[in-house]
C-alpha cells in the first residue's frame, strides 16, 4: 500500500482493531482531544527545555545512546511527572479497547511497558528500522502478540521534522526478510493524533531536517502482564504517589497481580501472597 490507514477516534473501535490486525499499524486521528492535548503539553513544558544540545543523560549503554541520537530530549517516568498522563492518557479508552482486543487473548492482564516523550530537535538523525518486540529476543518465534505500541504526536508530525516511519504489513513478513528505507511511510499527522502499531511491525523515527522545529511525540507501549517491562515502574514512581492514583492506573502500571489461575496458570507479582493493589486500598502498603 502507498499510505497508512487512517481512522478517526470517533469511529467504531472495530475499524481501528481491524486495520491494526490487517496492516500492522493504523493512524487514529484526534486520539487525544484538544483539551486533553493542551493540558498534557502544559505539564510536559515544565520538564522540557528544547536545548540545542538535546539530551545529555547517561543511557544504559552506548548502543541505546546511539539508537536515540544526540539531538533528542527525553522525558521518561511519565506517571510520576504528569497527572494527566497517569490518570487520562495511560488509561485512555482507545488504548484500553485495543489492548483488550490484541493482548488479552495472550495474558490475564496487560501492563504499561514504556512511556516516554521523545522531543527530536533539528538535525536529529533517523533511527534504524526495527521491531519493538525484539527487546525480548530470548522469547522464541513464532510467538503470540505480546506488545502494542503507539507514537502520539504532541505537535504536528511532518516528513521533514521526523515523523515516525512505518512499513505496513511488515508484521506478517518472514523473519528473514530485510526492510528497506524505501518501504517506510512517514506517519504524517496533526497534534493529538497517534499511530498505533503492533510490536512486530517494522518502524523507526525519521530524520529532523528542519532548521527550528522540535518534533515532540510520545512513545507509549503496553505488554502482556507476564513479561519484564523495559521501564521499571516500581522505581520510576514513588509508592506514595501510586497510592493517590485510580486503581485502574495502578493496575496498568504493573502494581497489580497477573492472576492466571482461572486459565490454569499461576500468579505473578504478589506481596505476602496478596495483590499489592488490594493492600494499597486497605492501607497496608
Ordered list of secondary-structure elements with their pairings:
Blueprint (H helix, E strand, L loop, with lengths): L5 E3 L4 H11 L1 E5 L4 H12 L16 H7 L3 E4 L2 H4 L1 H7 L3 H10 L7 E11 L9 E2 L15 E7 L11 E2 L18 E2 L7 E5 L3 E3 L10 E10 L8 H4 L2 H4 L4 H6 L5 E2 L7 E2 L7 H6 L4
Parallel strand pairs: 1-2
Antiparallel strand pairs: 2-9, 3-4, 4-11, 5-10, 6-9, 6-11, 7-8, 7-10, 12-13
Write down the CATH class: Mainly Beta
Strand content: 15-25%
Shape, principal axes of CA atoms: globular
Helix content: 10-25%
Strand order of the largest sheet: 1-2-9-6-11-4-3
Q: Residue ranges: pLDDT <50 for 5 or more in a row?
A: none
Tell me the span between the first and last alpha carbons.
52 Å
CATH architecture: Sandwich
- Number of distinct helices: 10
Number of strands: 13
Q: What is the alpha-carbon Rg in Å?
A: 18 Å
Mean pLDDT reading: 95
How would you classify the quaternary structure? single chain
Q: CATH homologous superfamily - what is it?
A: q2cbj1_9rhob like domain
The biggest sheet, with number of strands, parallel, antiparallel or mixed sense and barrel status, is: 7 strands, mixed
Number of domains in the coordinates? 1
Q: Remind me, CATH topology?
A: Jelly Rolls
Order of helices and strands: EHEHHEHHHEEEEEEEEHHHEEH
Briefly note the structural class of the backbone.
Answer: alpha+beta
Amino acid at each position: 500500500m502507498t499510505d497508512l490507514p487512517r481512522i478517526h477516534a470517533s469511529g467504531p473501535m472495530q475499524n481501528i482493531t481491524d486495520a491494526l490486525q490487517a496492516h500492522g499499524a493504523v493512524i487514529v486521528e484526534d486520539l487525544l482531544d484538544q483539551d486533553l492535548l493542551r493540558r498534557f503539553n502544559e505539564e510536559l513544558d515544565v520538564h522540557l527545555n528544547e536545548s540545542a544540545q538535546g539530551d545529555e543523560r547517561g543511557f544504559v549503554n552506548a548502543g541505546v545512546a546511539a539508537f536515540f541520537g544526540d539531538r533528542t530530549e527525553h522525558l521518561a517516568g511519565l506517571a510520576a511527572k504528569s497527572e494527566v498522563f497517569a490518570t487520562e492518557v495511560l488509561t485512555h479508552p482507545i488504548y484500553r479497547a485495543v489492548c483488550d482486543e490484541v493482548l488479552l487473548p495472550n495474558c490475564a492482564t496487560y501492563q504499561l511497558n514504556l512511556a516516554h516523550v521523545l522531543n527530536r530537535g533539528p538535525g536529529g538523525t533517523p533511527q534504524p528500522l526495527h521491531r519493538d518486540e525484539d527487546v525480548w529476543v530470548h522469547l522464541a518465534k513464532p510467538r503470540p502478540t505480546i506488545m502494542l505500541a503507539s507514537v502520539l504526536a504532541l505537535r504536528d508530525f511532518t516528513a521533514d521534522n521526523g515523523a515516525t516511519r512505518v512499513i505496513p504489513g511488515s508484521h506478517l513478513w518472514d523473519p528473514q526478510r530485510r526492510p528497506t528505507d524505501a518501504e517506510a511511510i512517514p506517519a504524517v499527522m496533526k497534534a493529538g493524533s497517534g499511530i498505533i502499531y503492533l510490536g512486530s511491525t517494522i518502524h523507526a523515527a525519521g530524520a529532523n531536517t528542519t532548521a527550528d522545529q522540535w518534533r515532540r511525540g510520545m512513545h507509549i507501549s503496553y505488554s502482556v502482564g507476564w513479561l519484564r517491562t523495559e521501564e521499571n515502574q516500581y522505581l520510576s514512581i514513588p509508592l506514595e504517589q501510586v497510592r493517590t492514583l485510580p486503581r485502574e492506573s495502578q493496575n496498568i502500571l504493573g502494581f497489580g497481580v497477573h492472576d492466571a489461575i482461572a486459565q490454569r496458570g499461576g500468579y505473578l507479582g504478589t506481596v505476602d501472597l496478596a495483590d499489592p493493589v488490594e493492600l494499597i486500598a486497605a492501607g497496608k502498603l
